């Protein structure tokens, strides 16, 4: 699906270049440089640069290899974290989220259910607070709506369903908790894509992140596909776009430019690490005021 997206973008570029009415400012060519794909304006002369499908494949393959190498490196470092260190960072990150104004003001949240074997930042305390309607001090709060993910297939297809209790969850074949499409009474659970109210906040997992908002996932493309679809739904319904917040251990934050990306990779608005919130987008900066 990622390859298709980049190939489709290239086709659009070539169509623009072949159009006699296209202005020079609208003419682009794609190239891969310094481990990332970028778009450059063409000079306004008679020369044209074209990219073949083979060149696109080579570029995608190079990026895929760089991502695989970085994932392997970070996963090895995560496995080296002591239980005590992980627990300390898990607590710090979750407390920061629970105390954040953007979390307290959110009415509808999409959040992942952490998996210990995947070395993901723990979200159990956050999910419990949402489901129990309590804040950090245990005070009752207005109920938030919670959506959690369910993997549908191996083609980057993931859905997020509303749950009201941890009893709505059961382990899948990878021992990751997820909701069934229907509840115990046989009623269809609400899918976030069909929700009548907007989602304010997405809490996202990942393997690595940087301070410009790049996110390296696990390679399946599930979150990138779902987030893009939801952003399109929000735009169609004229809703505010949700705040995309990644939860990250200290060692998962990379130097800028280290994480390779493709045009289909979704950037996050902010990162929460044990040291605090790293706001990235204008929306995050406003939310952190």
UniProtKB/TrEMBL annotation:
EC class: ligase
One Pfam family, short name: 5-FTHF_cyc-lig
Protein keywords: ATP-binding, Magnesium, Metal-binding, Nucleotide-binding
GO CC annotation terms, alphabetical: mitochondrion
Any GO BP annotation: tetrahydrofolate interconversion
Catalysed reaction, written as an equation: (6S)-5-formyl-5,6,7,8-tetrahydrofolate + ATP = (6R)-5,10-methenyltetrahydrofolate + ADP + phosphate
SUPFAM superfamilies per record: NagB/RpiA/CoA transferase-like (SSF100950)
GO MF entry, a single one: ATP binding
The EC number(s) this enzyme carries: 6.3.3.2
Annotated InterPro entries: FTHF_cligase (IPR002698), FTHF_cligase-like_sf (IPR024185), NagB/RpiA_transferase-like (IPR037171)
Family: Belongs to the 5-formyltetrahydrofolate cyclo-ligase family.
The protein's name: 5-formyltetrahydrofolate cyclo-ligase
Organism, as annotated: Protea cynaroides
């Amino acid at each position: 699906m990622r390859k298709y997206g980049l190939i489709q973008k290239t086709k659009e570029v070539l169509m623009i270049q072949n159009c006699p009415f296209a202005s020079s400012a609208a003419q682009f060519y794609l190239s891969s440089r310094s481990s990332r794909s970028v778009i450059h304006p063409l000079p306004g002369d008679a020369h044209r640069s074209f990219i073949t499908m083979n060149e696109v494949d080579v570029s995608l393959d190079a990026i895929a290899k760089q991502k695989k190498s970085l994932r392997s490196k970070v996963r090895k470092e995560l496995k080296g974290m002591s239980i005590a260190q992980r627990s300390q960072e898990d607590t710090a990150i979750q407390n920061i989220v629970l105390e954040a104004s953007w979390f307290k003001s959110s009415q509808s949240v999409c959040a992942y259910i952490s998996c210990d074997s995947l070395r993901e930042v723990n979200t159990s305390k956050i999910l419990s607070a949402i489901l129990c309607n309590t804040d950090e001090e245990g005070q009752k709060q207005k109920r938030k709506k919670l959506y959690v993910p369910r993997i549908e297939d191996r083609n980057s297809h993931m859905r997020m369903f509303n749950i009201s209790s941890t009893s709505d969850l059961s382990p899948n074949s990878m021992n990751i908790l997820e909701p069934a499409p229907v509840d115990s009474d046989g009623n269809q659970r609400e899918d976030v894509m069909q929700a009548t109210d907007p989602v304010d906040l997405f809490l996202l997992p990942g393997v690595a992140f940087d301070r410009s908002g790049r996110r390296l996932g696990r390679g399946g493309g599930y979150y990138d596909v779902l987030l893009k679809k939801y952003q399109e739904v929000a735009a169609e319904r004229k809703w505010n776009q949700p705040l995309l917040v990644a939860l990250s251990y200290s060692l998962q934050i990379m130097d800028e430019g280290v994480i390779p990306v493709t045009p289909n990779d979704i950037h996050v608005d902010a990162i929460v690490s044990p040291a605090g919130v790293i706001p990235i987008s204008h929306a995050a900066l406003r939310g952190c005021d």
